[in-house]
Amino acid sequence: MDALSIGQNAGKIWRLLDHNRKWEYNELKAETGLSDRDLNAAIGWLAREDKIQFETSQVDGHDYLYLELNLYIG
Asked: Which end of the chain is less crowded, N or C, counting CB atoms within 10 A of the terminal residue's CB?
């Protein structure tokens, strides 16, 4: 894993998140085919650049993490 591959994986996630919906972690993992390690690194890249926001919830004792794009208008 290097900065180039992390950046490319972040781009894959960015394009998926650009569909104006919330994505669960497992949905992103399945759609991208990335390993947990690669997906987490790419999410970290996007979070460091303040490109995504996180939302968590708990339903029936299960924790859910949702990701969506940060959009700034103005």
From this structure: C
